[in-house]
Design brief:
The chain is α+β, with helices and mostly antiparallel strands and about 300 residues long. It has helices at about 1-35, 50-105, 110-140, 155-160, 165-170, 190-210, 260-270, and strands at about 150-155, 175-180, 185-190, 215-220, 225-230, 275-280, 285-295. The strands form 2 sheets. A 5-stranded mixed beta sheet has the order 2-4-5-7-6, with helices on one face. The N and C termini lie far apart (about 90 Å).
Length: about 300
């Protein structure tokens, strides 16, 4: 009987010591959390391999994930601040010009007034395009973009989109060639998003590529449909190609606009399970090619 009393006493002492250890560990954790803002890179540390060590391991994992999310949020905030700074400059320039021409209407001759109105109209269109681009970008990064994914014949869909650009291209003196097969090639896409991709790539070639020739060509293999839009305008330095789809990236060649158009293109293509590449050969042409999954439909 005396032996059992000793065993019971030892068990009680062990539990008491373990409770003390737990209380000490909890106190250390509490102190650590209270001072976490002073030493954000520090981790918990617990000796042994019992349940306290397991809890400690999980807490450290939570801390690491929180740090990653914090860094990600900081980068996003800095990028958004830079975005607003750059775009405010982009808005002020055409806006100041627009106001200037409108103010000149009262003092100009009839011929000058007509010219001022045409210029002001073009500046207003530039502002509209800029605000549309900004609105589209914030919808994408905020997760508010909603897609109506349906199956389309991409050849017919592409024809419908590019035909709207023909009059503008002719007016600008830009030669155009379309290599689009008569076959039906089906992909799953959002009609508006796909139109935005084509429009952005064509607009980039016209406004920033300063080209005189544009080609749109579609091809496919067993699994993918490849859409290539190429032009003979300003080429992109090889050193800038890896960054060309990053938001706000403008580089030194002034051939990518405000740095949002191509970023939007990549985001939209990613949403359609596709991928985009760019190839630019100095003195020849620049080609943006994106691939979308090909869907086989039974007849």
């Amino acid at each position: 009987m005396r032996v059992w009393n000793i065993v019971f006493l030892l068990i009680c002492m062990a539990e008491f010591l373990y409770i003390l250890r737990i209380r000490k560990q909890l106190a250390e954790w509490l102190a650590f959390l209270k001072n976490l803002h002073r030493t954000p890179e520090r981790n918990f540390f617990v000796k042994g391999n019992d349940i306290l060590a397991d809890i400690n391991f999980e807490l450290n994992g939570i801390l690491e994930e929180s740090r990653r999310q914090f860094v990600k949020l900081q980068r996003a905030e800095n990028a958004n601040q830079q975005l607003l700074t750059d775009l405010s400059h982009d808005v002020r320039t055409p806006l100041a010009s627009l106001i200037g021409y409108l103010e000149s209407l009262d003092s100009g001759s009839a011929k000058e007034q007509e010219e001022y109105i045409h210029i002001a109209y073009r500046k207003a269109l530039d502002l509209q395009e800029l605000t549309d681009t900004l609105f589209q970008w914030f919808k994408l990064v905020s997760g508010e973009q909603r897609y109506q994914m349906k199956i389309y014949d991409i050849n017919e869909l592409t024809r419908e989109i590019i035909i709207e650009h023909i009059p503008a291209l002719e007016k600008l003196g830009i030669s155009f060639y379309a290599d689009i097969p008569d076959e039906e090639w089906f992909v799953k896409t959002d009609r508006m998003a796909y139109a935005r991709i084509i429009n952005n790539l064509l607009s980039n070639a016209i406004k920033h590529g300063k080209c005189s020739f544009i080609e749109v060509a579609l091809s496919r293999d067993e699994y993918r449909v490849l859409v290539c839009i190429s032009n003979n305008g300003n080429t992109i330095p090889e050193s800038e190609l890896p960054f060309i789809f990053e938001r706000l990236y403008k580089g030194d060649c002034a051939c990518t606009g405000n740095g949002l158009g191509l970023a939007i293109v990549r985001e939209l293509i990613n949403a359609m399970s596709g991928e985009i590449t760019v190839k630019s050969v100095p003195g020849e042409r620049t080609a943006f090619c994106f691939a979308l999954p090909f869907i086989v439909r039974e007849k």
